[in-house]
Write a sequence for this structure.
């Protein structure tokens, strides 16, 4: 089941598979990777194998300190995601290699990304 923020991006009018808007796609991918990273928290802490170890660069290691580092990274990524989704300057488009005017992610996506950082 997709997270509410990625679902909000998928429901955006510019999300038209197979080639969704480049800015939407890159932010969506960034959020999906963040969700995956957090999903591996328990495995990292317990020293178990990761489902997709290549998604971590460098490898996260194992144990409580390594799991905390991944958690802190995800918290930072959530803050970055909020900056990208609420951006009105065009910087997100530049970061994602898109040209043209900035993408308005819409009120639903903005509300959902803000909720990531409110806990």
């Amino acid at each position: 089941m997709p997270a509410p923020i990625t679902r909000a991006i998928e429901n955006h009018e510019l999300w038209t598979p197979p080639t969704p808007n480049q800015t939407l796609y890159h932010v969506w991918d960034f959020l999906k990777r963040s969700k995956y990273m957090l999903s591996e928290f328990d495995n990292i802490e317990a020293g178990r194998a990761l489902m997709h170890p290549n998604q971590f660069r460098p490898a996260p290691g194992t144990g409580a300190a390594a799991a905390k580092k991944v958690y802190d990274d995800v918290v930072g990524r959530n803050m970055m995601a909020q900056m990208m989704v609420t951006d009105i300057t065009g910087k997100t488009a530049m970061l994602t290699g898109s040209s043209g005017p900035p993408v308005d992610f819409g009120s639903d996506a903005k509300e959902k990304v803000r909720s990531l950082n409110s806990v």
Remarks:
- Residues 4-116 form one domain.
